[in-house]
Amino acid sequence: MNIKGEFVIGASAVTGSASAFRAIDPSTGQHIEPPFGAATLDDVERACTLAAAAFDSYRETSLAQRAAFLEQAAQNILDLGPQLIERAMQESGLPQARLEGERGRTVNQLRLFAKVVRDGRWLGAALDSALPERVPPRPDLRLRKIALGPVAVFGASNFPLAFSVAGGDTASALAAGCPVVVKAHGAHPGTSELVAKAIMAAVASSGLPEGVFSMLHGDGRTIGQALVGHPAIKAVGFTGSRQGGMALVRAAAARDEPIPVYAEMSSINPVFVLPAAMAGGAAKIGSGFVDSLTLGAGQFCTNPGLVVALDGPDLETFCDAAATALQGKAASTMLTPGIHAAFNSGVERLSKADGVKLLGRGQQGTSACAGQAALFITDAAAFLANPELEEEIFGASSLVIRCGDIAQFRQVAEHLDGQLTATLFVAEGDREAATHLLPALERKAGRILANGYPTGVEVSYAMVHGGPFPATSDSRSTSVGATAIDRFLRPVSYQDLPTWLLPEALQDNNSLALWRLRDGELEKA
Amino acid sequence: MNIKGEFVIGASAVTGSASAFRAIDPSTGQHIEPPFGAATLDDVERACTLAAAAFDSYRETSLAQRAAFLEQAAQNILDLGPQLIERAMQESGLPQARLEGERGRTVNQLRLFAKVVRDGRWLGAALDSALPERVPPRPDLRLRKIALGPVAVFGASNFPLAFSVAGGDTASALAAGCPVVVKAHGAHPGTSELVAKAIMAAVASSGLPEGVFSMLHGDGRTIGQALVGHPAIKAVGFTGSRQGGMALVRAAAARDEPIPVYAEMSSINPVFVLPAAMAGGAAKIGSGFVDSLTLGAGQFCTNPGLVVALDGPDLETFCDAAATALQGKAASTMLTPGIHAAFNSGVERLSKADGVKLLGRGQQGTSACAGQAALFITDAAAFLANPELEEEIFGASSLVIRCGDIAQFRQVAEHLDGQLTATLFVAEGDREAATHLLPALERKAGRILANGYPTGVEVSYAMVHGGPFPATSDSRSTSVGATAIDRFLRPVSYQDLPTWLLPEALQDNNSLALWRLRDGELEKA
């Protein structure tokens, strides 16, 4: 398939008539052909109108049909073959193995949601029997969840496949029965075009109305805001910066009809190394930490940006091991010139902050956007006094917090903003300290992990990739894992409906073999 | 128990030092003793600080202990005896039988949530097994839901028991593990004091930290806004006017850390009478409709404020029967002088609107706040052209929309804002029309009912008392029924935690005998 510089509105490939742009190869800083025309406000209107028109029909597709569509989309993405990987490498600077892995993740995500759709637990089906003899009589009540409506999805720069056009937000919204309009990320328009056309083909071959999926090029301030402001759009999924996310949150709140925004924004993912664990393996934890810190040039939402540890010789061992490991880490090309520049200025800011000392740096690189990893150290008092030290630096930069006593671990935890993850290194001897720390971490983070590193987000049933503000704009949900489908649903109750008017999921015979709550007890056909 | 004009902060009864006010008997317009001192901003601070301090401990009470606490609160409310009913009658103008029924509903609500807590499905427990041999290895992941944090609850005027101090929002938040700070409604401060002290006693006798419950007197603009703006508060429950609800939504969004607001606001609850159903019983539907319209002086969120029907002789029969039934309806005392005045001006506005004609009125009353029911008629074109006709008039006022053809039913439905309920009168002959209408109603309403009236909201598992904006500020939830607990929860994932650090609900042995998702399959011990 040639990359033509197009976007997708329903069944049509469109060359945008607004200002054109080209992708940039971050390893060279050079433009990549072809040019991409941005969408106009009319294009936004068309995509949203088609999505609204498709909604009633798409949300009532059978579980089997919707699942098969998701699987077809996955297959079509695989069938793009090496071209997809090559273009994504060029546009993102990410290496081949990483992008092949990410493609696998993208495909598995779609397949997991196909399984989730078929299972039907997401419907939350509940039936309360009528009690005609009661005074007053109890009606027959049946509940199911239905899709919220068309969803606007904003592709992320750091996962050009798994959190972009066919990424987690798109997969979970489509699974819920929501048509999707994607605003593609400007850093990988060619990758986006390829994937969008793969989904477009799956919509057509699955016999679905064309409005189920559209994807537009253009910038967030015009196209993005118009999309979020459109009356047909009923929810928003976003992964990116706090500034970008909050702009969408504000736009959604200012609508005549406010809508939910699921923005995954900013997190520094603290790692608490408790004393007994540190004593048991300071050097190993230090070098493992640097592996996690520098993975993918540190361009993960779950990158560990903070290490909290007790002052003393074990911490020195940790720091020496980390600094040594860092010296062995080659620079990686960062995703975009903008991200690279922001990383450099964040590292510079940190290096000049009061009470902050450089522990070590990774190797310098030769590519245009080479990110040179950095590790700093400060003490708890300085950290607690300076809110700037808590700001996320997107990339491989981290700060060690030296605590004078174990009580300061909890102080630091309580001081932190909401996080995607919080990590504990614990050994048997840390029982009391860990037990004391856990409630604070539960209040602050969506995922708590022990004796591991937060990078690596499993796509499964028990994953939470979310957390209190500002990690996300809505802590009640996750953007990775099976329960992400719940974000795009709302409950509807049906009272005394004649059988012929009831949705199939709520019919007496339970022909879909769903788990259902019958008078408060779970049962299956 | 004497009513002392107090509120409750944790374990302390407090006489407020801010400006004092008295309740008003709406049947006479006279003040009722004693005076109530409003809370100060210091009181708000104390209540919120206590709630925050109680949170970690309260949210980890055992399921059994928390359920027993809810049941004790219910019992203590019953034990208040006739005094509670008498005071509520005086403060609300509502009749004894209605308030006794409402007390039963309040108590049953607390008991239902006790059952829900014990059942533990709300925890959403999910376990994904580790796959150490996989490349990369899959960690052990376990998910449970935890409480959001302290919740601010705003009592409603129209349910001085069931949606006030110990009402649905309080019950569901306490069930979820959230401490609650109630801002009592100014219309029934004595009722509120009695109920608050019943809960305070239950907190103490259940051995819970005092901050689990507080209740403050004062107005929404100072005390209410301070409460919603307090950093310790993590969610808000509200039932009342659109103006009041939106003020809280805006305040919550303007915080450094935005928080969810569950505001149940405004709904006109359309009733669509399809032609075959109308032909089968126009007179009966008309008189039944008037019974629903005038129930409790029309002061229900689910009061049917709109009837949509086909023009013709059957509609005339409906209107004649409704007008006749209305003439027989005595005026009821409305809840407050303010509500009464707003009702009268709403009815006056409607009576002067272009193309609107009065069909009939109920009887005039003699009490100070007697609400005289009213029924109007207009045609679909006039309704679609004038947004004012869609505004809720709180009280027993309704508007019949005369449609020229069946296609206008859908036009009216699509034109409507979000609703708590939508009602269909249908017979076999209406299949096609009803099937065509249903998708629009699903998009617009939280509950769809057939051949009945929307007043009467069952407290059960399959109830949804919610709906798209402006019926509520968050259509993803319900404020009545068992699933209301879900509003106050967020998921947390635990990765590779040592057994001794894992919450009991996620331990391998499933000692709580919970329904859990194990690798995607539901299972019980």
UniProtKB/TrEMBL annotation, chains A, B:
Pfam families: Aldedh (PF00171). Keywords: Oxidoreductase. One of its GO terms (molecular function) is 2,5-dioxovalerate dehydrogenase (NADP+) activity. Residues 18-466 form the Aldehyde dehydrogenase domain. InterPro entries: Ald_DH/histidinol_DH (IPR016161), Ald_DH_C (IPR016163), Ald_DH_N (IPR016162), Aldehyde_DH_dom (IPR015590), Aldehyde_DH_Superfamily (IPR050740), ALDH_KGSADH (IPR044151). It catalyses: 2,5-dioxopentanoate + NADP(+) + H2O = 2-oxoglutarate + NADPH + 2 H(+); 2,5-dioxopentanoate + NAD(+) + H2O = 2-oxoglutarate + NADH + 2 H(+). Its EC number is 1.2.1.26. Belongs to the aldehyde dehydrogenase family. This is 2,5-dioxovalerate dehydrogenase.
